[in-house]
Predict the structure.
Amino acid sequence: MPDYVIVNLLEIEDSVGGRVPGLEGRFSRKHIASRDLGVSHFRYAPNLRNPGGHSHREQEEAYVVASGSGRVRLDDEIRDIKQWDVIRVAPRVVRAFEAGPDGLDIIAIGGPKPEGGDGVRSDAPWPDDVHD
């Protein structure tokens, strides 16, 4: 393995591949040949809300808002986010994003990925979607 690698996130293939219309996701872990780091780019179309969310069994993540603004769901809390905000999320916290009117670009950074992954999908609705 070389001592350094340079990869342009926007040149990596979109792995979301239309599964969520208006969302692109590019994952660099295998391209940068890192054992300990994953760096990903997510681009949300204006006003797009990721309906699901996810958590992890082991992996802590941090997200950097590279451009745009929106909201992040953190378990049952919703917080506004803007450019250059950094959001650190413990593994067990369900997280999901919603873009504002100008869209939302996020850089996600994750630590070592356990063999086979540790992501846990959540189909629980956003707290503001729950109706009595």
Remarks:
- The helical segments are 29-32.
- The longest strand covers residues 95-110.
- The mean pLDDT is 93.
